[in-house]
Amino acid sequence: MNGLIGLKRSSVLVAISFAAWASAHAAESGRPAALAAYAGKYPFDLVNGVSFRENKVVVAAVKAAVAGMSDRAELIQLFLSPGQPVDTPIALLSDGRIYSRSFDPASGGETNWAILITKEQGEDKAALCLSDNAVYGDGFSDWYFDGYIAFSTKGPCPSEKEEIEKAIGQWPAGPRPN
Predict the structure, then answer these.
(1) Nearest 5°: phi and psi at 78?
(2) CB within 8 Å of 68: residues ≥ 6 apart
(3) What does the alpha-carbon distance between residue 2 and residue 115 come to, in Å, rounded to a whole number?
(4) For the chain, how are helix, strand and coil distributed in percent, rounded to 5?
(5) Alpha carbon of 90 to those of 51, 72, 133, 160: distances in Å?
(6) Is residue 60 over pLDDT 60?
(7) Is the pTM of this model over 0.70?
(8) Within 10 A of 102 (CB to CB), how many other CB atoms are there?
(9) Are 87 and 73 in contact (CB under 8 A)?
(10) In angstroms, rounded to a whole number, what is the distance separating the alpha carbons of residues 115 and 88?
């Protein structure tokens, strides 16, 4: 009986040790945290020691979304710089897309932007929303994807889950541009 208890304890210790090693190894190898782990957190909150805006998957997807655009550097700086924006909690949409929205407090929310991360054919891709003068004015939001402005919508970048799905549906996986 004691041999069986000792064996169980040894198995548990081995399992715990392996889990600790695997966790440390993943962090050391620079593997990004699964993006769903950021849901409900703010873009500056850390998951496995990495903020949403610093996550390699997010950085690569944002850069690809504005590849080839003349104002690419400014757009990357806006979307990925922690700066001093007002951030909303990151939303996990019903289909697994991740959505993060921020705005410039000095503009009273007039300048706002969002990052939508989706999986397309197994690859993480970002669609970016940028609006200016769209809350109190008659402005529009531009949606960037694969290096171009895919479409524009009237008003600011959506902020609530229901607004997001109403504004863009299943895009970029399914229809939207008009």
Answers:
(1) -65, -50
(2) 147, 148
(3) 57
(4) 35, 25, 40
(5) 12, 24, 23, 10
(6) yes
(7) yes
(8) 24
(9) no
(10) 12
